[in-house]
Amino acid sequence: MSAAGAESWASNTTVAEAASFLRAAKRVVVLTHSKADGDALGSTLALARTLGRVGVEATPWYFGALPHWGKLAIADTTVELGAEGRHPPNDAEAVVVLDTGAWEQLFEVRAWLEGRAEQTIVIDHHLRGDADVGSRRIVETLASAVCELVTPLCVELLGVDGPEHLPVDIAEPLYLGLATDTGWFRYSNVTAASMRLAAALLDAGIDQPKLYRTVELCERPARLRLMAAALNSLELHDQDRVAIMTIRQSDMREAKAAPGDAGGFADLALAVASVRVGVVLFETPKKNGQEPLTRISMRSKALDDDSVDVNEVAQRLGGGGHARAAGARAQGTVDEVKARVLEALT
Ligand SMILES: [Mn+2]
Q1: 96: CA distance to ligand 1 center in Å?
Q2: Distance 177 CA to ligand 1 centre (A)
């Protein structure tokens, strides 16, 4: 099998079939993209808790930094933190990959996951993925969050009448993914379906103010110092339409920041009227003998016409994502990568 283009990155199975496949497994490994975000954590936790309730041992494995509130979201659910040389057990009978289907976002676990496509289900809402990650796929690119796609699977597995009847410890992580991937229901990916699901999950009894406080109002002071450094680095290009911020390892040290403190800044510059695309370039820590690597995050403004398709730009840089939010990891120093990003954008 080869990489799937937009035409083949589509569902080839149903929720009912996915549910019966997972029910038949004894041990399930639940994976998501490197550096799990709210949707990645929420979908993996909701599915693992659901499978646990129906007698299937399911363990999420996370690679890369987690958000600082990750522990609160995980609570007493058993999860594993993977690393180089620390990968899931080989006797897993089934694998679920959530919120990505791209090798590029699964690089830390790729060596373990490769060759397991027959046992693997991918559930994703991104525009592209690699067809050889999993033989079964549920893909809906119009879903605002992968939690929107995992919800019917949880409902099916538990045999309840709808999301409003889900146990609150499953409804809550689903809401977490929905809320964070839509910027708390502000982004252009919000649909009537996402609002209906949010309403149903509220009916299930989740505590939305508490969740908002946990995720959005609990930053460490280092995060604000890092934000100040990022804003200080702001450059405007292409008649003030492209905003680029840079975070270097020296900024991380001065702010006493942890890797998880650096995400989500690409949004900030979109507040400026003329700006159509916000870009953050993150200098990754140097590894001995390896080429410098720069992480690129891009956000674009939803405009009536002429919105920039950052997924398309990210793909040209070796990454991907969504039309309004995408990223890539590129070889080269921050300054080298900046020149390439600007060339791709202008
Ligand atoms: Mn997502």
Answers
A1: 15
A2: 7
